[in-house]
Amino acid sequence: MSQPRDDADGLRRAVDAMREVRDRCVWTQQIEHADLVPYLVEESAELIDAVEVGSRADLREELGDVLWQVLFHAEIASRDEVEPFDIDDVAGDLADKMVRRHPHVFGGKTARTPDEVLVLWNAAKAEEKRERTSVLDGVSERMPSLALAQKLVGKAASVDARIAPVDAEQTGLVIDDEAALGDALLALVAQARQRGWDAETILRERLRTLTAQIRAVEQSCTAHPQPGE
């Protein structure tokens, strides 16, 4: 059980601590948004480690470190002379978005299965992002290559199944479980190393090709809309 605290609002204490640090720490005063990116990457990786192999104490600590990054960015933003916003603005926007994207919780919609929830989520997201013209809008190229590959394969299938990569079973590579998939991926990396290839570079090059294919199909559909569209 957690020990009692003088101030039960730990989040507000953290916000106040961040403000004091920004005001009084000469190192922190020099930091801007871009300077924090390497720390965000590092803290995110440590949080993943805590989720996958760490203890409950590790998870609690790393969640706090990631939260500090959010508070740091928000405190920097609050002092912007042109478009200031603070952590309350960030949290308020988040709450509003989560309410919109859960109409089965906060509205009159019904969703009895995870698939039905996903349909409602995607519909709400599409309404919010009406200015987007491509399924690739909002997909960061800085994602880890395998995560990006999985994302782009799904995007490709949503545009045109014909541009999706060849199904592994068609190549004779049949994976029956997650462990076998891990072994297969590791074996492919080992084979690339034996041949002097950089697996990361090769995959990213292939993903750039897939991205170009998706955009080409989207442009073709825009130039030649189907009847009834």
Automatic annotation (TrEMBL):
Pfam families: MazG. It comes from the Bacteria. Residues 33-106 form the NTP pyrophosphohydrolase MazG-like domain. InterPro entries: MazG-like_dom, NTP-PPase_MazG-like_N, NTP_PyrPHydrolase_MazG. PANTHER family: NUCLEOSIDE TRIPHOSPHATE PYROPHOSPHOHYDROLASE. This is NTP pyrophosphohydrolase MazG-like domain-containing protein. It comes from Microbacterium sediminicola. The lineage of its organism: Bacteria, Bacillati, Actinomycetota, Actinomycetes, Micrococcales.
